[in-house]
Amino acid sequence: MTNALIAHFGHASLTGPRARNEDFLGAVTPEGAELDNKGLLAVVADGVGGHADGREAAEFTVRSLLSDYYATPDTWAVPQALDKVIGAANRWLFSQSQKRQQAAGMATTLTSLVLRGRRWYAAHVGDSRLYLLRDGQLKRLSQDHVWEHPELDTVLSRAVGLDARLSIDFMEGELAEGDVFILLTDGVWATLRDARIQAIVERFTDAQEAAFALADTAVASGSQDNSSALVLRVAQLPKDSLRDALARVSELPLPPLLKPGQEIDGLTVVDSLHESRVTMLYRVRAADGALHVMKTLRPESDAQDIAALAHEEWLTRRVVDAAFPQVITWPQRAHLYYLMSWHEGETLKARLARGHRFSVAEVGDLGARLLKGLAALHRLSIVHRDIKPDNIHLGADGRLRILDLGVAASDSGADEQFNEINNPGTPSYMAPELFNGGKCSEASDLYAVGVTLYELATRKYPYGEVEPFQRPRFGDPVPPTRYRPDLPEWLESVLLKACARDTARRFETAEEFLLALEHGAHRPLQVPRKRPLMERDPQFGLKLLAAGSLLLNLVLAALLFLR
Q1: What is the rounded distance in angstroms from the CA atom of residue 445 to the CA atom of residue 8?
Q2: Most buried one in 20, 61, 243, 511, CB count within 10 A?
Q3: How high is the mean pLDDT of the chain?
Q4: In the structure, what pLDDT confidence band is assigned to residue 266 with cuts at 50, 70 and 90?
């Protein structure tokens, strides 16, 4: 626990003069990896006053957020995860108000706070409030979403469940030890005001005592509403998280172009493995003799390239799986690069280049192992975007590894901050929809797996080779048996389904693709070799009707002529 985020929290919720408590609050304080990846979560909600289902709306929303937030992928940014979960709760509440007349207007305010690493994040809707007490200064972080009304105290302009589309306020900032966060419903803050809130929190060092004092003092001071308070005191901050460290890594100087024999940060360059327009790959040796792969940038790279490499390292660290090279932590690092494990062997492209003929058993086995690795990646909400034989390595230890997450993307929302170092994908392996403006997805990764296996089996591409900047036209894929007649029918069916032009005709998940390979000849797929004529030519029916009409007219004309 010496390097963990520690925050003490207290909570209190009093009914006050109301007949029913329509407030609801809660917090989750996980440990270990979940604390590092997701952080602490605290939530306060106030059901719309006077509505029969106000309490139900508040409780449903809080419970949904407390449970579903921790079920979102770790690769999602905190605001994106909060947005997804709160948005789902909003849709459900709004649908109930549309279905049942007695549930009309079922809604709630919501103020949520996440403490993760050395940063805080908040999502807010309505007129409950979030405060931060730091260094003797109380600051309100949230804004009330209310309309001014001459006859009513407040009218909410925004609430969870109020409208089909929900606009959420997101905030974030740096944490400091000793920070006190205070989440309050309007029954407390409207009665006590800011000065008394600060005085009470400063008087009680225990978070639970402070929370109860806030709620109890509000009721004693004449609050006419339910009074709820949740207080979090930050006792200890962890060391810099991976995200914090990457921010600093991006400020490190770029190394110069390196030559074999040169040393950098205690590493000796053995040779250069690959270089592109922006990136450089070197094989390096540590003092203990261990070999690693160093990935860095050319000296002329700009800030966007640097941010992209930092993002790539973050993604690569997230993938702790035997089907991928692993990132090596190097404390002596004083330049911008990252190290990966080195594995003797060769890529599948290299095997093809030296004339290796892959057997049916090899194609099936390599495909199954590739799909298992890709499934692990997809479970993290990461799309590889450049699956091809060049990026599939078969080690001397017999293990298959997927290389190069340089153009990979996660469903984190943060990816939009980073420009890609290279174009996302290699044309011959890119799915047809990507040439029409579609976005890379798990489906396009699976298509690339299909093309890769097709190439291993035939040394050809299902639609021919696609050159850079070409706009290919996709018809029906060429049956692989045209190039290799010895392929069994079941494998041909699998390859044709994987490389289908339309996404609806392909495998939906890596697991489904894997199952088809594992079943093989025992349960072969039934795949049409060509698209139906009406699908290939939607106007074929009209053409057929016109031809029939013309033929009928000719027959009638002939009969009249014979008379």
Answers
A1: 44
A2: 61
A3: 89
A4: very high
Structure tokens at 46: 């106030």
H or E element: which one contains 156? Answer: strand 155-156
Q: How much of the chain is in helix, strand and coil states, percent to nearest 5?
A: 40, 20, 40
524 touches 468 (CB < 8 A):
no
Confidence of residue 239 (pLDDT cuts 50, 70, 90): confident
244-341: CATH topology is Phosphorylase Kinase; domain 1 (3.30.200)
**Contact (CB, 8 A) for 444 and 433:** yes
Helix axes 510-519, 489-498, angle to 10 degrees: 170
Helix ranges (H only) for 360-479 are 360-379, 442-458
SS (H, E, C) 15-50: CCCCCCCCEEEEEECCCHHHHHHHCEEEEEEEECCC
From the candidate CATH numbers 3.20.20.70, 3.40.50.2300, 1.10.510.10, 3.10.120.10, the one assigned to the domain spanning 346-531: 1.10.510.10
62/110 Cα distance (integer angstroms): 8
Question: What average pLDDT does the segment 7-19 reach?
Answer: 95
CA dist list (Å): 528 to 320, 444, 503, 506: 39, 21, 15, 12
Decide if 195 contacts 141 (C-beta within 8 A): no
Q: Per residue in 172-206, pLDDT tens?
A: 988 999 999 999 999 999 999 999 999 999 999 99
How far apart are alpha carbons 507 and 497 in whole angstroms? 7
Nearest CA among 447, 446, 442 for reference residue 462:
447
CA dist list (Å): 254 to 302, 307, 335, 389, 518: 10, 12, 6, 30, 47
pTM of the model: 0.60
Strand ranges, E, within 161-314: 169-174, 180-184, 227-236, 263-264, 267-275, 279-285, 291-297
Q: What is the CB neighbour count within 10 angstroms for residue 151?
A: 5
Contact 213, 206 (CB under 8 A): no
> How far, in Å, CA of 418 to CA of 148, rounded?
42
Token duo for residue 397:
């230890």
Q: How many Å apart are CA 495 and CA 523, to the nearest integer?
A: 15
Same fold, 6-238 and 244-341: no
Q: What CATH number belongs to 6-238?
A: 3.60.40.10
Q: What is the full DSSP assignment across 42-73? A: EEEEEEPTT-TTHHHHHHHHHHHHHHHGGGS-
Instruction: Report the length, in residues, of the chain.
Output: 563
- The two three-digit tokens of residue 329, written as one number: 């932590």
CA distance 423 to 480: 28
Q: Dihedral sign, CA of 255, 282, 331, 393?
A: positive
Which residue ranges make up each domain of the chain?
Answer: 6-238, 244-341, 346-531, 534-563
Q: Which two tokens stand for residue 452?
A: 């890769």
